[in-house]
Design a protein that fits this description.
By secondary structure, the chain is mainly alpha-helical. It is built from eight helices and no strands. Helix 4 packs antiparallel against helix 5. The radius of gyration is 20 Å and the shape is elongated.
């Protein structure tokens, strides 16, 4: 259960009962295609796979955990790209202190430019909320 230990805001560290339920569901996952044959093996996108399993009562806790984990940002390249514009590769990155001009360029409009994203039709999945 190392992943559950790394994400304490998704699974509380002291919530051993929920951790056990998720672990049990994880162990039964290889047999899921036998219990839920409605095209489960043809789904290649991870979010669609877990969303399909979220509809099942016997794997819903695991699916909630997986979708919550998948929703975590997996990189901070947008932020690093902005701060690296003024960083020379010969300098010491450990003690690097951004300049005021660099901070001024790190606005949400520049870092998170999502004008072309069409997320209006995508429902939010909140962990712990029943769908």
């Amino acid at each position: 259960m190392p992943l559950m230990e790394v994400v304490p805001r998704i699974i509380a560290p002291a919530d051993y009962a929920k951790k056990q339920i998720i672990d049990n569901q994880w162990r039964t996952l290889p047999n899921a295609h036998a219990r839920h044959p409605q095209g489960l093996n043809e789904i290649s996108e991870p979010d669609k796979f877990w969303a399909q399993l979220l509809k099942t009562e016997d794997l819903s806790e695991l699916a909630h955990f997986a979708l919550s984990t998948l929703s975590l940002p997996h990189a901070n390249a947008d932020c690093e790209r902005e701060s690296a514009k003024g960083l020379t590769r010969t300098g010491n990155c450990v003690n690097f202190e951004p300049t005021k001009e660099m901070y001024s360029r790190m606005t949400k409009d520049k870092i998170y430019d999502r004008k072309n994203d069409n997320i209006e039709d995508v429902p939010d999945i909140i962990f712990g909320e029943q769908i």
